[in-house]
Please model this.
Amino acid sequence: MDKKECGYSPATIKKCHVILSSILRTAVEWQVIDSNPCERVSPPKLTKNIDDIKYFTLEQAQIFLKALEMEYTTK
Model:
């Protein structure tokens, strides 16, 4: 299923695949199952949308850089 049909993002599907694959890999090591079915499945590739990239404005960058120059103290 693609993202629109099941309602989950590719990142969520990939995370679930990683977790499930890890569990099943352990089951193979413990000889509970013969093979890991997750090895026969390719999770969706993650694509980055340029609109999702967050960045500082010029003013925010200047404030951030000034903050880096300040001495760090704890009380």
Summary: Residues 10-29 form the longest helix (20 residues). The CA atoms of residues 45 and 63 lie 36 Å apart. The chain is about 50% helix and 0% strand.
